[in-house]
Specification:
By secondary structure, this protein is an alpha/beta fold. The chain has 12 helices and 13 strands. It has helices at 12-24, 31-44, 55-65, 83-90, 109-113, 135-145, 196-205, 235-245, 248-266, 296-305, 333-341, 352-367; strands at residues 48-52, 73-77, 94-98, 120-123, 148-152, 160-161, 164-165, 172-176, 189-193, 271-272, 279-281, 287-290, 342-345.
Length: 369
């Protein structure tokens, strides 16, 4: 038996879309990427979308567009994929790590408020596993404290907060389109904003800071008006993304069905991520269970040795081999509890039969304890 942790949801439509772009003779970022951006804007209700080559680039682009840099502090949860932390370090800013609620796995406005200082330029809460943060609470906090709110919504495409699609709120958000997500372009991401100014800066930053896409008619001398890098995506990936955009809701619906199967099959044996009432749709990048800390690795090895691929998402950043020297003496009980107890089970692209097989493996392990 071999059950992948996640599999791409690609079919003939994605293949056809990619080949059509190749046949046009223009495969780098161009008109198809523009259509992809417009499609995301329509889907999320965001005023402006800038598609880039991955989710990390989206975070860097968003922060640069908001003028964040050396000497600025950015508040971010330690319980996150490491890209959240590294993106801050990469622009010379200082990540200030905060704890997370061990029930919902996300951080909260109250936890962020405790770390605000005169040097705080931004707060970067993360939708762990795609589950929406308390958006209204964070928007209120950012407004009261006069700081920028950048939501790392890498795993959130297809999710909803109080009935509204993720990405269309009154702050800057970023998505990832990595192959594990509910919207897949192999690699890719985007910045979503309701600000024309931020949107314009993002499009310049992803193209080396150029004033406009190169055209001998309008930009003869390669004019650079911002600091930027090459964060461009290809039209091949954007063509795949356009097909995927039409499938996001179906993808999320399927993931939720599998999660219900996991919960029903494992009810009473494990704790799960608590979903607050304000989350009207969880897109589930992953589904995790909370095992006893001293038995978690035993269960993980049992699953892997029997052909079920899993992940541990994540060891908090302040405990990572490289990063712990940057955050000496830090203890964050909520983040560490999730990091020490959680196992993320196969989900994306899985069948109902595969989920049932994983449940049987876990129940067999429980029986032998």
């Amino acid at each position: 038996m071999r059950i992948s942790w996640t599999k791409p949801d690609f079919g003939e439509d994605e293949k056809k879309a990619a080949i059509e772009v190749v046949n046009t003779g223009w495969v780098t970022q161009g008109k198809v990427t523009k259509r992809f951006e417009e499609g995301i804007e329509e889907y999320t209700s965001a005023k402006d979308v800038t598609v880039v080559n991955n989710g990390t680039a989206a975070l860097i682009t968003a922060m640069l567009a908001h003028g964040i840099g050396k000497g600025d502090e950015v508040i971010v949860p330690s319980l996150t994929f490491i890209a959240s932390i590294n993106s801050i370090i990469s622009i010379g800013a200082t990540p200030v790590l905060i704890d997370s609620d061990p029930k919902i796995w996300n951080t909260t406005p109250d936890l962020a408020r405790e770390k605000i200082t005169p040097k705080t330029k931004a707060i970067m809460p993360v939708d762990v596993g795609g589950m929406p943060i308390d958006i209204e609470g964070f928007e209120k906090l950012a407004k009261e404290e006069g700081v920028v709110l950048i939501e790392d919504a890498a795993a959130a495409p297809g999710g909803e907060y109080k009935g509204k699609k993720m990405g269309g709120f009154d702050h800057t958000s970023t998505f990832s389109f990595h192959i594990a997500k509910s919207l897949q372009t192999i690699e890719g991401g985007c910045v979503l904003t309701n600000s024309d100014e931020i949107g314009e800066k993002c499009k310049s930053i992803r193209n080396h800071g150029m004033s406009a896409p190169y055209s001998a008619k309008i930009n003869l001398h390669y004019d650079y008006v911002n600091y930027g890098l090459n964060f461009r995506i290809t039209d091949i990936q954007s063509a795949i993304g356009l097909v995927q955009l039409s499938k996001v809701d179906k993808q999320v619906e399927h993931r939720n069905k599998l999660v219900r199967m996991y919960k029903e099959g494992l009810d009473g044996e494990f704790e799960f991520q608590t979903v607050p009432d304000y989350v009207t749709k969880h897109p589930y990048l992953f589904f995790g269970i909370m095992a006893d800390a001293d038995k978690r690795d035993s269960l993980a090895k049992c699953l892997v040795n029997n052909g079920a691929d899993i992940r541990v998402c994540w060891l908090p950043a302040h405990l990572q081999a490289y990063h712990k020297s940057l955050f000496k003496g830090l203890f964050l009980s909520g983040a560490e509890e999730v990091g020490n107890r959680s196992i993320e089970l196969p989900l994306g692209g899985c069948t109902e039969e595969e989920v049932n097989d994983v449940v049987k493996l876990i129940k067999g392990w429980v029986k032998n304890q």
